[in-house]
Amino acid sequence: MRVTHWPSHRRDTSVSGARTLIVGAGDAGRTLAHDLQQTPSCGLAPIGFLDDDLRKRHAAHLPVLGRLADLPALVRAEGVEVVVVAIPSLPPVQLATLLHRATRTGARVRYLPSFHAAVQRGSRAGDLYEVSPAALLGREEINVIRPATPALIRGRRVLVTGAGGSIGSELCRQIRAYGPEALYMLDHDESNLHRLQLEITGEALLEADELIVADIRDVARVNQLFATLRPELVFHAAAHKHLPLLERHPCEGVKSNVEGTKNLVDAAVTHGAHRFVLISTDKAAAPTSVLGATKRLAELIVRSHTGDRIVTGSVRFGNVLGSRGSFLDVLAHQIASHEPVTITDPAVDRFFMTVEEAVGLVLEAAAMAECGETFVLDMGEPVQLVSLVEAYAALAGVPDVTIKFTGLRPGEKLSETLLGETEERIPTGHPRIFATRGRPVPPDLDAGLGELYDAAERNDAEAAGRWLAKLIPGYRPAGPHVPTARELFDAFYPDDF
């Protein structure tokens, strides 16, 4: 690669700390370089900058060594150990390209968060982020907050179920910022509530009336809570969500994802709630799994109340970055532990977005709901998991990462879709949200639900699967998993050659 010929300089071999190259000689980069020079305890010693502005030669008493394209050659020539990307305004696609190029050099990579406050107050060493899988996706976040969204929440009594989960806790954080009269945070796991209160308030005394321990499958308890609290807005995020477990225990999925949803929306109607929003999943579109089928049925239950004295809607999206138990969470653990990374298939891909963006769009969709629509978030382009693993492994300094392909599990797809075959995409007033209504609610829904609940109560997985198939056209239970010869071999000889 040809390196741009900047004025000659002498390589400083006396620096104390990891030799650090800063990408970007603008305000953020200069402030960061000064901070690092004044804070040797950070362990990073800046030696110079990269910048495409030909007018820049020096910044913060350090040379500008070349253009951004010269990065790999300069890392080798200057013995760079750490590369810091200090261009907070860089679009995500360009940031991802630059990060990929940097990780391939073998240097450790850090970057500054891309928000305006970092530039407004001056970027500091404490702002440095380790590059996460989210940064490598190159997906642009759009956060459009319409006036109707804060107005929907301000001064209202709001209930969030599954409040201690990844989506629920972020819902609570964003809702709280809009000034509700009361925010009731419900979860069946007291440890989740303990952590949530600590994150939101800085205290975890568990003495607030807003913290509620309850099981949404307990219909009497649900009705007692609605009668007492009288929530006006309900965001229902509680669910069983791990696909392989629900294939093995489908009746539990029915009890929580279907019966629990009906308990809540029925109580919301009975006790005068104004609006009910279900958090759904892309697996509900053309479902092939118990998870997808139960969430699709939950969408139908929510839509069945169209015409009642309540506004209902569902919001469907794919994987969220950083959620507990998600692929990216598992990936980070496996890479850090130097374990083989497990992927089902070389061709598998998934939709991803950050939890903050997903929840922001959920609140926007909630304000747009009118008649039981299912809102679908625009997730951008699907990401191939193998590419994501390789990029993150290079970043973590494990270029020879081992990937173990386990095979698609019952109910899994190679690629997800956001709409079913019979669902029409309907534009909304938001650039990242569209709606769909799909088939009308079947008139015998309640009778079918009764049979489904009876099967779940008996823990009759086969009967539950049949009733899910009757209620959700196109869904077929995967049936019991029969291990392949390869799976049997791996079970007995896990370290085979």
UniProtKB/TrEMBL annotation:
InterPro entries to which the protein is assigned, alphabetical: NAD(P)-bd_dom_sf, Polysac_CapD-like, Polysaccharide_Synthase-Rel
Domain Polysaccharide biosynthesis protein CapD-like stretches: 158-436
Residue ranges that the Swiss-Prot or TrEMBL entry lists as coiled coil: none
Signal peptide residue numbers: none
Family: Belongs to the polysaccharide synthase family.
Protein name per UniProt: NAD-dependent epimerase/dehydratase family protein
Organism, scientific name: Amycolatopsis pithecellobii
